[in-house]
Write a structure and sequence with these properties.
The protein is mainly alpha-helical. Helices cover 56% and strands 7% of the residues. It is built from 6 helices and 2 strands, in the order αααααββα. It has helices at residues 2-7, 11-24, 28-35, 39-57, 71-79, 108-118; strands at 90-93, 99-102. A two-stranded antiparallel sheet has the order 1-2.
Length: 119
C-alpha cells in the first residue's frame, strides 16, 4: 500500500528525495528500494532535475542588431588635435555584474533598446 502513496509524490517531494539520494552515497537501486519508490521514476526525476539545473546555469544569448552609429565619428572628432580631450565612454553596470561600455555619441535609442533587452 505504501508504494501506491509514493507514486503520488509531488515535484517538491521528488526534489527532496533526489537531494537525499545524492547525499546518501547509495546507488539509485538501493535508495529506491529503501524508500519504496520505483527505480525508473527515481531515474526520471534525477534526469529531469539535472537537466533543469543545466538549463538554469547555461548562458542565455540575445540577438544583437548591428546598426550604424555616430560613435566612431564622435570619437574621432573628439580626439582630433585642437578639439579638446576625448570623452569617457558611457558605462552601464547590470545587476549581474556585467559592465557594458559604449562610445561617446552612441545613439540613445540604441542604448535604451539594449538595456531594456538585458533587464
Amino acid at each position: 500500500m505504501e508504494r501506491d502513496i509514493k507514486k503520488q509524490l509531488g515535484a517538491d517531494a521528488w526534489r527532496r528525495l533526489v537531494v537525499e539520494l545524492e547525499e546518501s552515497g547509495q546507488t539509485q537501486k538501493e535508495f529506491a528500494a529503501a524508500r519504496g519508490v520505483s527505480v525508473s521514476t527515481l531515474q526520471f526525476w534525477v534526469y529531469k532535475l539535472r537537466r533543469e539545473a543545466r538549463r538554469a546555469a547555461a548562458p542565455q544569448l540575445l540577438a544583437v542588431e548591428v546598426v550604424s552609429s555616430t560613435a566612431l565619428a564622435a570619437r574621432q572628432g573628439a580626439s582630433a588635435p585642437g578639439r579638446g580631450p576625448s570623452a569617457a565612454p558611457l558605462e552601464a553596470a547590470l545587476p549581474s555584474g556585467v559592465v557594458l561600455r559604449f562610445s561617446p555619441g552612441t545613439d540613445v535609442d540604441y542604448l535604451r533598446a539594449v538595456l531594456a533587452a538585458l533587464n
